[in-house]
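writing this on my phone so excuse typos. first protein, seq and then structure
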Amino acid sequence: MKTGKNKYRDGGYITVYVALSLGIIISLITTMLIAARNRTIRFQTECVADLGINSLLAEYNRELLQQYKLFFIDSAYGSGNGNPENVAKHLIHYMNINYDECSSGILGKGKDLTACRADNALISGISYASDNKGRVLRYQIDRYMKAIYGLDMISDSINNEKDLEAYLSDYDAYCGERDSANGQVDEIMNELNSNLEEDEEPYSISNPADSVGTLTQGTALYYAVKDPAAMRFGRTDISGLISGRNIRDGEGLRPYQKAPDDLVSRQLFYKYIFDQCGYYSDEKDGSALTYQIEYLIVGKDSDMENMEEIADKIFKTRYAINMAYLMSSGSKQMEAEEMALAATSAIGLPELTEAVKWTILFAWGYAESAKDMRILYDGHGLTLIKTDASWNTPLAQMVAFAACLDDYTPPGGDMDYKKYLTLFLESADYDRTTMRLMDIMEMDIRLTPGNSNFRMDNAIYQFYATANISSAYNYDCSIKRFATYE
């Protein structure tokens, strides 16, 4: 019996020990379960956040991609009132959709082991397309173009030969010399006539150059295009476009993102412009302005004004080139002198020959430049340096040059209209061109359904997203992610 009593007494000790140990074990297991749940919530939140971010990036503006091959989120989502809060709401929506999917798993609806919800989100560190005068836009264009064409882009512009300002300076100088020659002729004629008796007939000269002088005040586009009336000239209100309004500022590029301002990037940028925008002889359908690259250079609100100014710029460069040739050509100067001598001898004033010769040379250069315009706008190339072989206007045609514009032999040069536009783009301010490119994007995308209020300073390239998460099991957390199209 003694043995039995010891047996029951030992069993009581074991029961107490097990009871005490079980409490510790249950506490340990519960703690481990809570820790596992919290860790699961963190992991689930990371997955859901990544899915939400990817869903946001998938909301890129479709028209920007289709027309300009660019990925940007329109933070206005078609409303015109763009702000980061719109993006944050979309992120919360996508995260909670994925949390709901997690709660309807094998345990069934309402038996979620994490029971998480995204309560709020903050979008910060935003890079808008327009930041730093469009540098973010150029950055994405640069990455796109390098992916398409690679890095071996070499400029084929004539900037290395002579820049635009030098041509325009030469043009102004030649105009000054032309006015001086005309003034000299007028001065001599006035002096002669002032010494005549009252009954004497005043002197007058039939200067062949005068017939050209009466046409020099017109637009060069008149000579360039055979039928300007057949051209489609658009007009649009540019006052509300991005280059002319106050815009929101973002964070711009990150320190590790190289600014696309080197020579190769600039050439790729100009190549992109010609790939995506319309210009004379290669117009873009469905655009607000027919001649978009001309707008990038000039910036007026009508195609007519932009085309006229481009034609005027080209004409001035051609006039400078043609006059440089005439100044160096002994044979052409001899022809002009013979014509001048015939005109002055007819009135017995050979002393006027030299001055009249120069007026004829300047008029001849004008006539050749007008024909150059017709050649160029007909789709042919011109030579950078004029020679006897590439000169297309005989002196006999000078008086009636406007009727002889189609009488030419294409010189076979490589200076075509597109190359002139490239020259003008390269000579223009880089940032201003970028802002006007965003004007083009805005005006065209606004023509598409659902985008009537589209703004490029609502277009987001990259951002930080911070989301705050709560669980029905009294565990809260937050997560921060960087989202970019890079």
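second protein below, same order as before
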Amino acid sequence: MVSASAVHAQSIRDALSATYQNNPTLNAARAQLRGVDENVPQALAGWRPSITGSAAVGMVNQSDQGFTGGGFSDTTVAVQVVQPLFRGFRTVNSTRQAEAIVRAQREDLRVTEQTALLQAATAYMDVIRDTGIVALRRSDLKFQEELVRASKDRFSVGEGTRTDVAQAEAGRARSQSALNTALANLNTSRAVFRQVIGVDPKNLNPRSNVASLLPKSVSQAIAVGQEEHPSIMSALHFVDAGIFAVKTAEGTLLPTVNVEGNLSSNYRSSNGRSLGGNGTTNTASIFGRVTVPIYQQGTEYSAIRQAKEELGQTEILVDVARDTVRAQAISSWGQLNASEASITAAQAEVAAATLALEGVVEEQRVGQRTTLDVLDSQSDLVDARVTLITAQRDKVVAAYALLSSVGRLNYTHLGLTVPQYDPREHYNAVRDKWIGLRTPDGR
């Protein structure tokens, strides 16, 4: 693998920290959660009074027994206050439903966080892999150019043939093509790095402590995933939300009790002969109102049945989440073991291919091997080194994928170096707000 100096190196933890702070998908998920937080104060509004004001201005023309009595202007200003006392437990249950949805959305944010961090780790290792492959392809091209030069020299002194020269030139052309492809892949990897992490890759260092964070066995990985994975936690919270949604829907069948207070002021000004005089009338009233639903076109019954079906769906999705997490843990564990075995095999292949190439080159110098034999051996060695670099990349990516599959690819376990985002701060800031247009951050 291509390693860099420890001084001024951009470590993988630095890249993950930048992702945690800069990734647009992750920041969008945080904004979505802040929007979901507002469902709680909206549900709590069921406890709060509503205050409305009204004003009316008009002209009235009166007559009595065929005689015109004249007209007058009428102005009325009124204020009404309605305080809910009982709403069939809908306020309590809708608040609990909203709180459960907030908890579920927080777990979904953790899922998004894990996805972004895994993408960042993959992009980081892709740049290192493709940088290493470019270096190999450049070294191979230099070897092929030297082989072309040597073939031409031997041909000029009568020790080689034109076929040898042609074969060497063909090998050089293939190496140039492979280098061009490797450069294109590296440019793509660098672009993805910038997209996911938010900064350009510079002086990357492949060293990572992720191995120390992994479970010790596949059974432990499965157990940790079942206990900690945010997708399972999210599904469980959505079950809670579904339970309270059913109770909220059932509350529409219960009576509601409100206290209503009214205050109004009416001013009348006569014009000409009027049956009434000028003056102001003030009125104040307070009374309780009980409303008992009897039949509301059947919509409330349908809504209750619908809520129960949706609750059943969320309960099934818990099992789906558990099975998915279990399968991911087993798959990631297998991929990690396979990559470790691939590294061992690739190292052995590189060692053997290196010895084979050295032997073929020496035999070719004494006429026992052809230029084509050298080209084949060099190609085998380059392919083996590419396989080794790829296997080393796959091992690191598989380790991060395993950490993600058990729900531990997060800020705390990775020890990231940027401030941690705390979703509770926004939630606590808006939960009990009665009034205000500005968001907590001032927008």
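The domain at 10-48+89-253+312-430 is CATH 1.20.1600.10 (Outer membrane efflux proteins (OEP)). thats all i got for now
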